[in-house]
Design a protein that fits this description.
This protein is mainly α. The chain has helices at about 5-25, 45-55, 60-75, 80-100, 100-120, 125-145, 145-165, 170-185, 195-210, 215-225, 230-240, 245-265. Helix 1 (about 5-25) packs across helix 2 and helix 10 (about 215-225) runs antiparallel to helix 11. It is globular and about 55 Å long.
Amino acid sequence: MNALMKLNLIKLEGQFTHWISQLLAVACLTVPLAGQGASVTLLTPENQQKIELAVWKYAIDRPLLVQTIEWFRNLTRNSQDSAAIAELSRLEFMRAQLELDKKRRIQLFENCINVADQALALNEREVRGLFWKAAAMGKVAEDSGVLNALRLLRPMEKMLLNVVALDEKYENAGGHRALGRMYHKLPGFPISFGSNQKALKHLKRAHDLFPQDVITRAFYADLLLDEGRIDEARKHADFVLAAPIAEEDAREYAEYVNIALAVIEKTGGLPLRLGRK
């Protein structure tokens, strides 16, 4: 998220709790989108900004996230707006991320998948729906064992390839980034379809599109290390550790910082910066 958007979200935050409580109180009076005409979208700039605020702060303000989900669920009820419903699946993904109980977490990610399916039933080319369904399936695969994971991997690959074909820049080249990580970490033939060659293609493209993206740089560093390209791997790992990370992003980015630290440890170097403000 860029600095200007974060500034706008900070200004908005003080007004949001009061606004959302008012909206929930009258949500039952909202005219369904189907009655307004197909050209109307629920993703107005104001509504999108409120969603971005909840997504940005999800790790430190769970009540705001839950309020936003309830507001947007009411707003999208009976809607034919596939993009808006797909944004609801994105919000549901964030809520599932916070759940510590494994069984409940799987249920929440499955709910995210179900919401994404609603969007895709309206528009099979809905990029948001494809991306967040694939992301949730990946999380279910992590939690539900190797057999279920193998069942989910090929459908995930297909969805992410569709994301790349439809909008390769979505979510900071998230389709390329996820494919690169998948191809890197999966075993190769005949066990699975992992391929470092494919991984390099997608992570290089993600880096070319968004060179400041911390997640891409961490994944790229890990892959380059496995390829024996030590200096390049170290450069990307150092970038991750030097990147300023806001409190709101600290939970999400901790995993990628750890990847970078592991790369640096394996290359026998010291981190570029040991502390963060």
